[in-house]
Amino acid sequence: MAITIGKKPESDFGDPLGMLSDCHRRIERYLKVLAMLASQVQGSRLNEEQCQALEAALDYFRVAAPLHTLDEENSLFPRMRIHQDPQVHEPSRQLEALEADHQSTETAHREVEALGRRWLAEGSLPDEAVRRLSVILDNLQAIYEAHIHQEDHEVFPLAAKSLEQSELEALGREMAIRRGLDPDHLLRPWPLDPK
C-alpha cells in the first residue's frame, strides 16, 4: 500500500462523518476529470487512458454518489432534524436546500451520463453536445462548490457536536449496510496486539 506523506487517511464506517467528507473529495476529483476531458478533448476521439477516466467518472456518479446522497438524506439529515436543540432545529431550511441541490445534481448527472456514454459509444461528440456537456459541468461545479463547503464546514461539524455517539454508530452501520457490507465485521475494533 502506498503512503502519501501529509495526506489524511481515508475514514471508515467508525467515522461516518469523515467518510461523508472523504466522499466529497472523490466527487470533486471525478467532476474535475469530467470537466477536464470536456474542455481539453472537446468531443474528439478519446485515447484509451481518457476513455478509462471518463468511464470511471461516469461509473462513480452513477453508482457511488447516489449512495452518498442516501447516506445524507435517509440517515444523517433525519437524525439532525429530530433533535430539539435549537442549534440543530434551526438548520432545517439549510437541510432542505441541500436536498434540493441533490435533486438538481441528480438530474444533471443523468444528462452527463447520457452524453458521456454517447461519447464512449460513438467515439466523438458533435459540437452542440460538447457545448451542452460543458454548460452542465460548469453548473455542477458551481452547485457542488457551495454545497460541499456548507456540508463540510457547517453541517458535519454541527452533527459531530449534536449527535450522540450511538447515533453516529448507527449512521455508520446504515452506511455499511447500504453498500452491502456487514457492519458488525467492519466496525469491530482492530486488536492492538496482532498475535
Account of the 3D structure:
The chain is mainly alpha-helical. It has one domain (16-179): Up-down Bundle (Four Helix Bundle (Hemerythrin (Met), subunit A)). It is 77% helix and 0% strand. The protein is built from 7 helices and no strands. The longest helix is centred in the last third of the chain and has 36 residues, at 127-162.
Instruction: Give the C-alpha Rg.
Output: 19 Å
- How many structurally independent domains? 1
Largest sheet, in brief, is:
none
CATH topology: Four Helix Bundle (Hemerythrin (Met), subunit A)
Order of helices and strands: HHHHHHH
Q: What's the helix count? A: 7
CATH secondary-structure class = Mainly Alpha
What structural class results from the helix and strand content?
mainly alpha
End-to-end Cα distance, whole Å, is 22 Å
CATH architecture: Up-down Bundle
Provide the low-confidence segments as ranges: 1-5, 188-195
The rough form would be described as elongated
- List how many beta strands DSSP finds: 0
Nearest-integer average pLDDT: 88
Proportion of residues in helical segments: over 70%
Strand portion, in percent? under 5%
- Going by CATH, the homologous superfamily would be nmb1532 protein domain like
